Amino acid sequence: MTYDINKLSLEEKIGQLFMFGIQKDHLDEVTKEMIVKYKLGNVILFARNCISPEQLFQLNQSLQLEATKHLRVPMFISIDQEGGMVTRIFNGATFFPGAMTIAATDDVEYALKNGTYMAEELDALGINMNLAPILDVNNNPKNPVIGVRSFSDDPHKVSQFSEAFFKGQQTKILSTGKHFPGHGDTHLDSHLALPKVDYDLDRLEAIELVPFRNAIQKGIHALMTSHIDFPVFSEQGLPATLSKKCLTEFLRNDLGFEGLIVTDGMEMKAVQDAYGTVEASLMAVQAGANLVCICHSYEYQIQAFERFKQAVLTNELPMSVLDERVSRVLKYKTLINTHIINQTYLGIESVVVNEMHKAYALETVRRAATLVKGDIYQPKGKTLFIGVSPQVTSGADDTEGNYLITKQIKASLPDIGRYLMPVNPSDEVIQDVVKKAKGYDQIVVTTYNGNIYQQQLALIDQLQALSKEVYVVSMRNPYDLHFNPNIKNYVCLYEYTPNSMTILIEYLKGQLTLKGRLPIHG
């Protein structure tokens, strides 16, 4: 079905440019007002909106019914369902693995099938746009926000696995590669500050741009911009999201990208502190963006709508520019599936609550488990397990305290001693752990972003000084050896999720054959 831009009012055109977060897990009066009064054309979902598959189906169904009734154009209903550590749908549906887990299988078939199965579930739930996969090349071990969300530090491996993933997704839904032109070589989180990547074009062409060029050539539907200053692309220190030189001159004209340009969240500090969410939203569209994400603040959402309307009426945002941006949105809306309007949850439940999908996701994590150095743990004598309590490490996460591995250990391996420590243990905690470890023959210690929380690595040194067998298992970023080459026995699982905990228990029982390959340079 096609949508005629000439039949849209000014307000309806503006509404098509916005992708707003909503606060509730149902269609409340505030969201209805956003659609009816402010002509909201698109929604981005977060964990707060996803309680159960049936509830999520009903929410999305009501959103599409409201949009088609009042706007006559369906919504993009989007989500950051990358898998692994950036997951929004936790309960009932499949918990899919993250990018680096998939790459550690060293088999692109896992990327294709995970992308395909994920798309089938999202489509059944009424989600028609996924803000994934990550195209960033994570070649900075200190990166606080990307890490295992990236497939690799090798641009060609990122290209290969991301292509398979989005080709699987695009059988059912729209894919969005991110974060153009690359968030992999930063040491700042753009949720908190404005990073700067000051390389020349030759270096960027050799690494950062390789997966983006490949994705464009292979027909990815959308790209998300990064709030990063790339001096070679951007004018006057602007982040890429706000740079016409970057989005229009380079991405559109030089790279030939014809898909949708989507902004990262406009409340992130990288743009909010310097430009303000509302003004930055307008600047992004002037620069070339088609969809502006304002994820949390109702006040900013309303102010942005009014600011856009004023800008068009005063020709600050010319009608010709507005129409060009909106026309591209409408073009891609011809691709989305609105079957949810006429379906029931019972009619799609078997697609979402799918044992085959869940088994494949678990098998991916199992196949990815990697012995990087030394020996594998073999149960003998008295063993102490030291687990880290996970916490949100960036604005992209929804993982804090959701899963505690020590509970699983107690249930599955009651004879193993347990110690749960914080992600950044103090010297006092380290002393306490070491004191307890003296009474055991073997020690298994898990790390969680030891590249950032390096007290974990200091603990490992002290444990190894006890002259006992110490086995380190990374549950997220696999850079522990980079910062502590003294680690003797090192295994990587790449994520702290229910699936990885199941595989960790298999490892502790001596039942796991480790076949994975490290997707980064060791």
Low-confidence stretches: none
Instruction: Find the CATH topology of the largest domain.
Output: TIM Barrel
Q: Return the domain count.
A: 2
Backbone CA Rg: 23 Å
Provide the CATH top-level class of the largest domain: Alpha Beta
Number of strands: 14
Helix count, DSSP H or I runs of 4 or more residues: 20
CATH superfamily of the largest domain: Glycoside hydrolase, family 3, N-terminal domain
**Named CATH architecture of the largest domain:** Alpha-Beta Barrel
Task: Determine the structural class based on helices, strands and strand pairing.
Answer: alpha/beta
What coarse outline follows from CA principal-axis ratios? globular
Largest sheet, if any? 8 strands, parallel
**How would you write the strand order of the largest sheet?**
7-6-5-4-3-2-1-8
**Terminal CA distance:** 50 Å
Percent helix range: 40-55%
**In percent terms, what proportion of residues is strand?**
5-15%
Mean pLDDT: 94
Multimeric organization? single chain
Short recap of the structure:
The protein folds into 2 domains: 17-352, TIM Barrel; 369-508, Rossmann fold (3-Layer(aba) Sandwich), CATH 3.40.50.9100. 41% of the residues lie in helices and 12% in strands. The chain is built from 20 helices and 14 strands.
